[in-house]
Amino acid sequence: MTAITLTPVRSRADRQAFVDLPKRLYRGKVGYLAPLDFDRLPAIDPQKAPFFQHGAAEFWLARRNGVAVGRVSAQVNHLLSTQKGGENVGQFGYLDAENDPDLVALLLEKAENFVRQRGKTAIQGPFSLSINEECGLMIDGFDSFPHMLMPFHPPYLQAAVGRAGYQKAKDLFAYDYDLGALGTQNALKKLRADPRFVLRTVNMADFDADIARVVDVFNDAWSDNWGFAPFTAAEIAHLAQSLRPIVRKELILLVDYAGETQGMAIATANILEAARGLNGRLFPFGFATLLARLNRKGAVRTCRVPLMGVRKKWRDDIAGAIIARGLIEQLQENAAAAGFVRAELSWVLEDNKSMNMLAKALRAKPYKTYRIFEKSL
């Protein structure tokens, strides 16, 4: 067998090869569409990605006869030290490779050595680069249409990771939601009728501040969840900048109470559907195609709900359930009116009882599962 070489990603050309690898490996597979370069390239650039303000990471490409055949990242997220046991955990991510278990083991060994050298006694992943970005290894739903920041992996990777000594840590569910089944919208009616609460769309004149309010709710609502890492100020600014060009005002909802935001829900048009056929490249002509599809009603039929939450203080109050359900019902109404047909609710931790119960109540169907793996070092 020809020897495999693993080299760190350093130059812009290396980063482009790192981003391009899955396109070659998975092109033509049902369920795969190439992510956009303009989104993926900055995410692995230490000079641009907010992650590097609170973490350290390294990226490697595996080559055989000069041809890239695998990739992986290893990272240490210093924000995890605020969580129970998090200070002992390193992470891997961006795991993609040819169907070769020995190659996958070699890539994972490289990641393990990186985190071990930084004093970590366990490794989890994949996270690319954190739990607030793309995470999980797809273990079912391979033939379903993809959504932005939800990864695609072929079935053989799960087996190869297991063979390398990794076990399940957590599963993450993605739900398929039929936007045409509006139902009675009882929670929305109650929320609108309650004078204590103001249900509104994002204020585009105060967009960055409203996104900061959304993330503040998220950081509060999700703080007790497994693997939680808070959004930082830099990540909030990056999120606002990323969302602004593609946002639809009616798909970012907030619920205010006494002048403070208590709940939020965001849906985004499925950029991967809008970018189909572009192979991840927006320049020189792809950007115009993308915008035309995004702005034409019905051209993009799917959307994703990546963020939703209600502050913890409402957790044991019936009003908290009304806020959550009312947000989703309003979001469903607005998305359907905008021409979307289906939504993905993703992702949801397997043991997040309240969110899984809400998805069931909405008659959303679990259709994809992503697994976080772990290994003691």
Describe the protein's architecture and organization.
- The chain has 377 residues and is of the alpha+beta class.
- It folds into 2 domains: 4-173, 3-Layer(aba) Sandwich (Aminopeptidase); 178-369, Aminopeptidase, CATH 3.40.630.30.
- 33% of the residues lie in helices and 29% in strands.
- It contains 11 helices and 15 strands.
- The strands form 2 sheets. Strands 1, 2, 3, 4, 5, 8, 9, 10, 11, 12, 13, 14 and 15 form a 13-stranded mixed β-sheet that branches.
- A hairpin with a 2-residue loop joins strand 2 and strand 3.
- Helix 3 crosses helix 4 (155-163) and helix 5 (186-193) packs across helix 10.
- The longest helix is centred in the last third of the chain and has 20 residues, at 318-337.
- The protein is globular, with a radius of gyration of 21 Å.
- The model has no long low-confidence stretch (mean pLDDT 91).
Short note summarizing the structure:
Helix content is 33%, strand content 29%. It contains eleven helices and 15 strands. The strands form two sheets. Strands 1, 2, 3, 4, 5, 8, 9, 10, 11, 12, 13, 14 and 15 form a 13-stranded mixed beta sheet that branches.
